[in-house]
Amino acid sequence: MTRLVFRCFYLGVTRYKNILQLQEKLVKWHQSQPEVSTLLLLQHKPVYTIGLRSKLYNETDKDKLELLGADFVKTNRGGLITFHGPGQLVVYPIFSLATANMGVRNYVNSLEEVVISLCKRYDLNGSRSPHTGVWIGNNKICAMGISCQRSVTSHGLALNCNTDMGWFNKIVPCGIHGKGVTSITECTGTEVTVKDVLSQFIQDFSDIFNCETQTLEVLDENLDNSVLAKLITEKDSEGLIKNLVS
Amino acid sequence: MFGRIAARATLPLQTYAQSQAIQGTNRLLKARRHVPSFCCSLPNNARGIHCSQSLQTETYYSDSHEWLRVDGDTGTIGITDHAQSKLGDIVFVELPEVGTSFEKDESFAVIESVKAASDLMMPVTAEITDSNTALQDTPELVNNSPTEDGWIVKVKLSDTSELNNLMDKAAYDKMASEDSD
């Protein structure tokens, strides 16, 4: 089996809809180039998102959450409602499961393993449950929701580093009653930011997925999704990135 | 659903409609490597066509792990046991509307499991004539009975010659055994 090589991009703090459109473009591109693999790492401005089972939420829910100052976006990923905001590491691996010779269940399990491994670095005992994601006791520290179209993955995971946890009080996160949410900062009592964990995540991802990861490229967070797509799909984009970001 | 596998075994198929060697009905035949001795005599260029003794249902498989059970130009589609085990516990199936038509390889339904929404692809160009609404309340039927009660849609095929591009059980089983997970 070919060892996958992931090109890694950090996109800064972004608007969800812009990145959703970027993902749609990248998924189509990866479907035509199944040998390529991309890892998007970023943060989102405050947004509540729902998944495929959107009939569980209505306009009233949407309006209520938008009044709080967050966006509300419906997606085609698995999983229920969740919140994304600054202080949360969001990772979208976009690659072909067929090329990786991986099934969906194995893929999700491997993503959980990466986060569990990362938690260990902070002496946190991450665990799995029948509900996909990573838990510290009864509190979810990392949510997951994936889409797989013609074998190409999109969406991914959201790990709370120093997220403002108050946003989660307005919803039943992931539709799971009776459980809470937490962050690395909350669990350790020390401020841990997204930038602190970026390279740690990439390292653990590389180990668990047994893949190569190329040097992280940082892109301007204000770029439109069309420009981002062009940069990411150019095989030799180093020159382009320097010109646009300088 | 899991995308195309680069190398797969396919058996040559020939549509039967034009053949005058065997009597009667317009049916589909599958080519096999070994022609049974009871098979009727065939033209020299037929290359091992197996004759069905009666009109029977045939099951075909796509390399994205959908099965298609065909009877003339109507069929039933679901996912294989191998596919459901790779997906994990299924919690939701998004079904297409009856009356919608899809091209071969177009996404027609979505299955959610382990917080992952995976699309299913049409093995042939067809119109949806029925969908298994039982899956709305009991999506686990797809895990427990993927080839019977867990069927997903019924279809009317537009072009039965597209069946030539699909696999039979032996070829599919071989491909599935080479699949990891």
Description:
The complex is a heterodimer of chains A (246) and B (181). Chain A has eight helices and twelve strands. Chain A is of the alpha/beta class. In chain A, helix 4 packs across helix 6. The mean pLDDT of chain A is 92. Helix content of chain B is 14%, strand content 29%. The chains are: A alpha/beta (246), B alpha+beta (181). Strand 8 (139-149) of chain A pairs parallel with strand 9 (116-121) of chain B, so a sheet runs across the interface.
Summarize the topology.
The complex is a heterodimer of chains A (246) and B (181).
Chain A: E1 5-14, H1 16-32, E2 37-44, E3 47-50, H2 59-67, E4 71-74, E5 82-84, E6 88-94, H3 97-100, H4 104-121, E7 134-136, E8 139-149, E9 152-160, E10 180-181, H5 184-188, H6 194-209, E11 212-213, E12 217-218, H7 225-233, H8 238-245
Helix pairs in contact in A: 1-7, 4-6
Chain B: E1 13-15, E2 28-30, E3 58-61, E4 66-71, E5 74-79, H1 81-87, E6 90-94, E7 101-102, E8 107-113, E9 116-121, E10 126-131, H2 134-137, H3 141-144, E11 153-157, H4 169-178
What is the chain-wise order of helices and strands of chain B?
EEEEEHEEEEEHHEH
Helix and strand composition category of chain A: alpha/beta
Give the overall pLDDT of chain B as a whole number.
Answer: 79
Q: Name the biggest interface.
A: A-B, 31 and 25 residues
Radius of gyration of chain B: 17 Å
Number of strands of chain B: 11
Helix fraction of chain B, binned, reads 10-25%
Q: Termini distance of chain A?
A: 39 Å
Number of helices of chain A: 8
- Major sheet summary line of chain B: 6 strands, antiparallel
Flag low-confidence runs of chain B. 4-54
Q: Strand order, biggest sheet of chain B?
A: 3-4-5-11-10-7
